[in-house]
Specification:
This protein has 328 residues and is α/β, with parallel strands linked by helices. The protein has helices at 43-49, 121-144, 159-170, 185-191, 199-203, 224-231, 256-261, 275-288, 291-297, 306-314, and strands at 2-9, 15-22, 32-40, 67-75, 85-89, 104-107, 112-114, 151-153, 175-179, 195-198, 217-220, 239-242, 264-267, 298-302, 321-325. Bound molecules: NADPH dihydro-nicotinamide-adenine-dinucleotide phosphate (NDP). Residues 42-44, 129-130, 133, 155-161, 179-181, 199, 221-222, 226, 243-247, 268-271, 313, 316, 318 line the site of NADPH dihydro-nicotinamide-adenine-dinucleotide phosphate.
Length: 328
């Protein structure tokens, strides 16, 4: 028996979460059983833990947790053997399949990635889905060419934003960080941001479809009015990696920045990334994310903290990356 944060639904469709002892034979099918060392809290985990599962959870009882890192216990797939360190992100784990909010998980071998050299399970979860997505965003910007001038990161004090700031700064880019929390300025500067932009400055709706050419690239975790505004401020031919919608799913923009400035809007999806891309991105994380900066982002937690932290992240109240010690 082992502990799991089990979410159940009653006859009136109300959901509730409790740490519950479950057995291995309750785990879903999969080739690999993993002893979960660390998991984390992403925006999507907040949605999965919210009433109704945010429209993401398929069935109850459910174990949320969209990512985890741990040690292989059993495997019927040749690629993995007991003792191997692995990391999982995406593939609707924690949504359509039981996830990392339990001390053991059973998943398809195809969904796992071996931990790259130099990265511990704890560090991998300090990165987590949010940081992995930040890396994918930087790689997408690189593929399309980062222009001269500052690279903008929106939602900068959040999970995706914090890691994007640290990676871009480490790669030698000037980084402008947009935040609605001025008290995080010192934190963002310590990660490498050279300029702090107040959220209000970019939240106004678009009045002119084009403004001064300012940003050489952008990682956008916010979407909505802010993304629309930013599109008109990009340098000629520059790209925006659109990651999230913390500020809204609508896009009140015009086509003008695309037509007259050749701006690229690159959609980033971390969920269905093929194995080779996932491996490449995790290797880049190990190489291009300074581990001392990663440590600054860590908010340590244990399983009992998950209900509060998953609610906090939906309110935009989590700074950096929550790392949950599942054996703690
Ligand atoms: P966080 O909650 O950690 O960060 C989001 C940040 O956005 C907040 O910290 C806040 O930053 C800012 N923010 C929140 N609300 C608003 C608002 N109303 N207006 C403007 N800014 C706001 O979440 P994550 O970093 O984990 O995820 C960010 C987004 O990316 C989410 O929408 C998430 O679903 C998405 N995502 C997408 C992935 C993909 O594969 N495409 C993978 C991972 C995440 P600050 O306080 O600095 O202003």
């Amino acid at each position: 028996m082992f502990d799991a944060l089990l979410v159940t639904k009653d006859d009136d469709d109300n959901t509730s979460a409790a740490i519950t002892q479950i057995s291995e034979d309750q785990l879903p099918h999969g080739e690999v059983t993993v002893s979960v060392d660390y998991t984390t809290v992403n925006y999507k985990d907040g949605l999965c833990m919210s009433p109704g599962g945010g429209g993401l959870v398929r069935s109850y009882p459910h174990v949320p947790g969209i990512d985890f890192a741990g040690t292989v216990e059993q495997s019927s797939d040749d690629r993995y053997k007991p003792g191997d360190k692995v990391v999982l992100t995406g593939w609707r784990v924690g949504e359509a399949h039981w996830g990392g909010y339990a001390q053991k998980a059973r998943v398809k071998a195809d969904w796992l990635v071996p931990l790259p050299d130099g990265l511990t399970p704890r560090q991998a979860m300090a990165v987590g889905t949010a940081g992995f997505t930040a890396m994918l965003s930087v790689m997408a910007l690189e593929d399309h060419g980062i222009k001269s001038g500052p690279v903008l990161v929106t939602g900068a004090a959040g999970g995706v934003g914090s890691v994007a700031v640290a990676i871009l700064a480490h790669l030698g880019h000037e980084v402008a960080a947009v935040t609605g929390r001025p008290e995080t300025s010192d934190y963002l500067k310590s990660l490498g941001a050279t300029q702090i932009v107040a959220r209000e400055e970019l939240n106004e709706t678009v009045k002119r479809p084009l403004e001064g050419e300012t940003w050489g690239g952008c990682v956008d975790a916010v979407g909505g009015a802010m993304l629309a505004r930013v599109l008109g401020q990009m340098k000629y031919g520059a790209s925006v990696a659109a990651v999230g919608l913390a500020g809204g799913a609508g896009l009140p923009a015009t086509v003008i920045p695309f037509l007259l400035r050749g701006v690229n809007l690159l959609g980033i999806d971390s969920v269905m990334q093929p194995y080779d891309n996932r491996l490449r991105a995790w290797k880049r994380v190990a190489q291009d994310l300074p581990m001392d900066k990663l440590e600054e982002m860590v908010v340590p937690a244990v399983m009992a903290d998950l209900p509060k932290l998953t609610a906090d992240i939906l309110e935009g109240q989590v700074k950096g990356r929550v790392v949950v010690d599942m054996k703690g």
